[in-house]
Amino acid sequence: MEVRELEGLELVGFYTRTKNANESDPKTAKITPMWERFGAEAAPKLRGNPKVFGVYSNYESDHTGFFDVYACSDMLSKDMSEDFKSIQILPGKYLMFSAKGEMPQVAIDLWGEVWSYFAVEDCPHQRAFTTDFEQYVDGNEVQIAISIK
What we know:
alpha+beta
């Protein structure tokens, strides 16, 4: 992992609002259905060399509260669907995590590493809870960027 200063980025995709406690129950989970919809409706519209992201923003409080989630890309336009929403990845300081492996398990495991890292009492970084994101680099690599203070 490494700290990086990142520029802002404008993305477009599908949106939902949820909290982590709801995502552990298939009856209340919203993130998986949103990604399934992205795969069915948005992915076919991607052209060229698109970058695909999952963006987490508008945190109610911390990792226990509600937050917005986007399944999005830099190669979509709001004009393509009335359901597409814009999201801005905010410029700032991010702690970067990355892993390679079989999707979606590698992304799930990497989020586990992120949560474990920040759960340590003497963690050298503090989450800002502004904008966090995962970028799917290719079919078997994911990078997670956590905004830090």
